Amino acid sequence: MALNIRVKETADETRERIARTAEELFRRMGFAKTAVADIAAELGMSAANVYRFFPSKTAIVATICTRTLLENEAQIAAVLAGEGTPQERIIEGFVTILRYHKENFLEERRVHDMVLVAMENNWDAIEAHKARIGGMIAKVLAEGIESGVFVPHDPGMASQIILGACVRYCHPVLVVQHIDEDLEAGLRASLSFILRSIEVERTPLP
Length: 206
Fold this sequence. Notes:
Layout (H helix, E strand, L loop, with lengths): L10 H19 L6 H8 L3 H7 L3 H24 L5 H22 L1 H13 L1 H24 L8 H11 L1 H4 L1 H6 L5 H14 L10
Helix pairs in contact: 1-2, 1-4, 1-6, 2-3, 4-5, 4-6, 4-7, 5-6, 5-7, 5-11, 7-8
């Protein structure tokens, strides 16, 4: 006779199940309209049990946001490691960030709202996200120096300068404020201008 053996979830698996269920409800109902009690009911558990794993609804959003940002980072990393010159890869990496925020606002408004909530309440995660992107950009800059495309410079410092200069195209609030503008063209022009300042000068052909 076959036995039905129920495997007990680990704490991490339960946390993930709560976060996934909460994300579905946030997408369907919105963050403000979804209570912890709604999440608990959807899971068939008590609100007190949800609070055992997350101290607040905002903490659940932070977990969801971190995962979505990591997914976005994976897209950025793929672009930065792809084909093209260092300049082209850096530009396309930033375009990937811009498109992510535009699409969230235009097509997944409630995902956009979750990102804003996380930014307001969990800035450390956002800073870590920015640091990881800065590290990716610095790596491409270092490759450019090694290959003779860029003049010698501090890649870490240069990546921070580039991130600061492009904040208008990377911050979700600022992207939304200028959503009707051709942000992609502005981003490409800005980055091309910045990157020219560290390019090795080429002797013109006769």
